[in-house]
Amino acid sequence: MKPISCCITGHRTIKMLSYAWLIDEINDILDTLIKTHNVTEYRVGMALGTDMLVTELLLKLKKKKYQIKIIPCIPCISQPDFWPDEQKLRYYHLLTQLETPEITSQNYTPNCMLERNLSMLEKSDMVLAVFDGRYSGGTAYTVHLAAKKQKPMIIINPFRKDVIWKNYK
Description:
The protein is an alpha/beta fold. Helix content is about 40%, strand content about 25%.
């Protein structure tokens, strides 16, 4: 079976009814993707919120001896520059445990975040999104573009507490 690559996308701030439900749901989905669907490569944008959360969950699975690659896709070198110190430490600590980063731009540009998302999407076979239906932003852009390209998607809506599998066989 051919290894499958998954793009992770989601909001920086997550509106939800239950954090525990979200963690359990993501863990169950990742476990299913790895064991049943041979999804062994994950591209993460390393932003605050969903990206960092899923990266930490993937690292826990990797420590359980799952043979997976976690590829950080960084929009620009300065991505964490204006984050709180605690989040910067978390970011750099995570980077030490991941594959070699794919860097979209050395310097910040107004489009570097969207270009990073497009690159992640182009290099992935499917998408796992934590998406509450907002009409704008990077997650909305990525989800809508993936739908247009008919990529398989798993959309977790943490506010409604539901999961939709789209175009998935």
